[in-house]
Amino acid sequence: NLEVGIVGLPNVGKSTLFNAITKAGAEAANYPFCTIEPNVGVVEVPDERLGKLAAMYKPRKTTPTAMRFVDIAGLVKGASQGEGLGNKFLSHIRQVDAVAQVVRCFADANITHVEGALNPLRDIEIINTELCLADLETVEKRFERTQKMAKAGDKKAQSEFAVLERLRAGLGEGQPARRLGLSEEEQALVRDLNLLTLKPVLFVANVSEDDVADPDANPYVQVVKQYAAGEGAEVIAVSAKLEAEIAELSDEEAKQFLAELGLVESGLDKLIKAGYKLLGLITFFTAGEQEVRAWTIRQGTKAPQAAGKIHSDIERGFIRAEVVSYPDLVAAGSYGAAREKGLIRLEGKDYVMQDGDVVYFRFNV
Ligand code: GDP
Fold first, then answer.
1. Are 50 and 179 members of one domain?
2. Which mutation among 6, 16, 85 tests ligand 1's pocket best, with the greatest number of atoms within 8 A of CB?
3. Ligand 1 centroid to residue 261 C-alpha, Å
4. Is the CB–ligand 1 distance for residue 199 below 6 Å?
5. Of the residues 152, 174, 197, the one at which a domain ends
6. Is the minimum distance from the CB of 241 to ligand 1 under 6 angstroms?
7. Are residues 176 and 206 part of one domain?
8. Is a pLDDT exceeding 80 seen at residue 192?
């Protein structure tokens, strides 16, 4: 259950964006097993490949994959000191796997900015500071105990303590943990701390309706992009208000509306794709006359575990996977043609699944 949490100061457009997400919502019938809480939005992940595969197989049913966004309200200046919803907010954000920070880049005299004038950089830094302070407290709590164990000669505690020292110094200077250059091993040592600033992040620049055709012309967007570039983070420009309106249109109407704006894709679709990538997720496909379907796995998942997403029996009885890459299949024109060209591979239990694999699992019952 991988989730992206939507955060941001009050009045930046979080609820409006979340509203667009829930309106665009996934068809519940396809995902019968997820109970949906009011602050959780489930959306289908747009994927052009699925339509192409459906055109090839003409299945009875086409099923996209889905992901979750969580609306996390309540972050204000002083949240780490218990202002606003304070700790409640922080415990919500601890549970998500990645963070989308909404930054207000639209000017609207009628809508109050909590901090006065429009200033995206200051807004980003307020949130950054709150999250760093919260993490600093978490690190401090662990510090002394680990130090004692390290002094007593505990090797693991010594390695952990070295990481805690780096975190304490960095967070104290307002550097998010993800910017401290910790190696995989170092991150693993502090994983159980669930640090807020270690989560991957992307920025959503909420621009006015007039800016969506060319968001880069908005100087505030440039400021956000510059900041984000400092940590290799992505920036998605959307107009939350417009997205909420688009989400009410039919697919055809939406396409036409976007075309009139000179766009091929809605901001929401861009955000969903970016969020999916941020979570480290990839897609594989199963295709047949009955159903063409997209499945979500984490990057690095091996074939049997991928099969387990479909059914635990297939994982248990896994023999081999017949795999063809999506580009190979499309180039060949059909599964049969791909087979004739030798493009279908037989992969075993150690095969690491790749994004876009079209798979048929062979298994013992
Ligand atoms: P939140 O407090 O961050 O959840 O902010 P809201 O989503 O409630 O938005 C605050 C106000 O800004 C509302 O009146 C929205 O209608 C307005 N708003 C949100 N997005 C946009 C936008 O893209 N353009 C304009 N003009 N107003 C927006």
1. no
2. 16
3. 21
4. no
5. 197
6. yes
7. no
8. yes
Cα(163) to centroid(ligand 1), Å: 40
For residues 253 and 354, membership in a common domain is answered with no
Q: How far is the CA of 71 from the centre of ligand 1 (A)?
A: 14
Mean pLDDT throughout 127-134?
Answer: 92
Q: Ligand 1, atom 1: nearest CA belongs to which residue?
A: 11
Ligand 1 close to Cβ of residue 19 (< 6 A): no
Query: Pick from 197, 220, 238: which residue ends a domain?
Result: 197
Atom of ligand 1 nearest to the CA of 238: 23
Domain that residue 329 falls in = 300-363
Does the pLDDT at position 180 exceed 80? yes
Mutate to test the pocket of ligand 1, among 14, 111, 126, 220 (most ligand atoms within 8 A of CB): 111
158 and 242: one domain?
no
* Domains contained in the chain, number: 3
Q: Are residues 187 and 244 in the same domain?
A: no
ipTM over 0.90: yes
Same domain, 179 and 203: no
Q: Which residue has the higher pLDDT, 23 or 175?
A: 175
Residue 2 has pLDDT above 90, yes or no: no
Q: Determine the distance separating the centroid of ligand 1 and the alpha carbon of 233, expressed in angstroms.
A: 24
Q: What is the 3-state secondary structure (H, E, C) of the chain?
A: CCEEEEECCCCCCHHHHHHHHHHCCCCHHHCCCCCCCCCEEEEECCCHHHHHHHHHHCCCEEECCEEEEEECCCCCCCHHHCCCCHHHHHHHHHCCCEEEEEEECCCCCCCCCCCCCCCHHHHHHHHHHHHHHHHHHHHHHHHHHHHHHHHCCCHHHHHHHHHHHHHHHHHHCCCCHHHCCCCHHHHHHCHHHCCHHHCCEEEEEECCHHHCCCHHHCHHHHHHHHHHHCCCCCEEEECHHHHHHHCCCCHHHHHHHHHHCCCCCCHHHHHHHHHHHHCCEEEEEEECCCEEEEEEEECCCEHHHHHHHHCHHHHHCEEEEEEEEHHHHHHHCCHHHHHHCCCCEEECCCCECCCCEEEEEEECC
Q: In this structure, what CATH number is given to the domain that contains residue 51? A: 3.40.50.300
- The answer to whether residue 56 scores a pLDDT higher than 80 is yes
User: Do 342 and 232 share a structural domain?
Assistant: no
189 and 237 in a single domain? The answer is: no
Q: Is the confidence at residue 86, as pLDDT, over 70?
A: no
pLDDT, tens digit, 9 for 90 and up, residues 197-254:
999 999 999 999 999 989 999 999 999 999 999 989 999 999 999 999 999 999 899 9
Instruction: Determine which residue's CA is closest to atom 19 belonging to ligand 1.
Output: 13
Please give the share of the chain, as a percent, with pLDDT higher than 70: 93
| Mean pLDDT value of segment 182-194 | 94
Q: Rounded mean pLDDT of the chain? A: 91
- CATH number for position 304: 3.10.20.30
